[in-house]
Design a protein that fits this description.
Elements: H1 2-12, E1 18-19, H2 27-31, H3 61-71, E2 78-80, H4 85-98, E3 113-118, H5 122-130, E4 134-141, E5 144-145, H6 147-156, E6 160-165, H7 179-192, E7 197-201, H8 218-224, E8 231-236, E9 248-252, H9 254-267, H10 273-283, H11 286-311, E10 319-321, E11 330-334, H12 339-348, E12 351-352, E13 370-373, H13 380-401
Parallel strand pairs: 1-12, 3-4, 3-6, 6-7, 7-8
Antiparallel strand pairs: 2-9, 4-5, 8-9, 10-11, 11-13
Helix pairs in contact: 1-13, 4-9, 6-7, 11-13, 12-13
This protein binds pyridoxal-5'-phosphate (PLP).
Pyridoxal-5'-phosphate binds next to helix 4.
Length: about 400
Amino acid sequence: MENLLKSFEELKQRNLRIDLTRGKPHSEQLDLSNSLMTQAVEPIGENGIDLRNYGEPVGIIEARKLGAEILDSNVNLTIAGEQSSYLLMTQLLLGRYLFGLDDNPWKDEEEPAFLCAVPGFDRHFATLEGLNLKMHTVDLCPSGVNLDDLKDKLSKHPNIKGFICVPRHSNPSGEVFSDENIIDLLKITKAHDPNFINLFDHAYLIHDFDETQTQTPIPILADSLSALDNVAVFTSFSKVTFGGGGMAFLTTGEKNFKLIERVRNMMVICPDKINQRRHVNFLKNKMNIIEHMKKHARLIKPKFDLVNKKLSNIPNEIGEFTKPTGGYFVTFYAKRPIAKKIVALSAEAGLMLTPAGSTYPYGNDPNDSVLRIAPTYINLDELDIAMEIFVLAAQIAHLQSL
Ligand SMILES: Cc1ncc(COP(=O)(O)O)c(C=O)c1O
């Protein structure tokens, strides 16, 4: 322990300030798309639409076609929206909350609730909480959703309206759901309630940096089960081009599609069609996007390798960690309830981590054990020191907890 404390003290003396809190692209990744900023755009788009004027509330056709190509969805059921998939998700949830699918809005029900895959994404929880939807957790497992836990929660809690998850490179624990898992999830939830909505946040759909298990596209699986209105699949270019400056997509069934159109009409006349056309010009098609994503992978992969190497220095009895093949996060699972302590110790040495608990609804990690590490935003040198701090903090917190 003395040696650990001595090394930790030395790091503290360095007055470091390193931010590992959010999954943001590094500036080198953003540079890959710099030519977007100088792309000339012809004023008239496909279908003769004047891109400089109002119109096309669900996106220009060329952008919707690109979205449908990536999602493997029907273009007529695909929206190309603004720069945030999170915005499209909130618009759909608002529609279900205020108006409902068949004039049965959630707001009129007693304690409408949602199931959330855990560990999960704090912004999802914030939106659901903001809409007063009670949240219950469902565990993940290596093949995706723990379906026994899902069934248990469906039987225990009344009025569950939907489920939210990240089906590829899950944020933060990296699971890639199997086809069987998704099919069973759809069957179980549809049987539970014909209007059940599964929100699949495909933020990391094309973000592999190592070989990753293939998945049949969710719209295809859902269509084969006549369950298109039981899914809403989202993705965006936030981590393809510019964080918060890309373009977002949603596909779902006809009823949900009409509902989100209705909500969007209440708040936005149309998306920024010039930005949409720039993205289409720059990214062109799925094949080209996959090539573009390989450049991201080359920049990201060494960072994940470094995190892996450093975390391997933590003995197994203190904690274990994920080895994702894509996405933006590594998750550390402490064996003892020390996540908050690790965050506090790291902060003392100048390392900012995502707050403990943030991967659970209401910030409530029942075991105080899960920590999310987001290694992409900083340089390798900084990451090296950041992980030194983390590894020491985990060991010290563990020993102090005994
Ligand atoms: C799972 C997940 N969904 C959505 C987002 C945000 O996506 P967007 O910028 O398209 O709103 C993120 C960003 O970190 C994310 O991790």
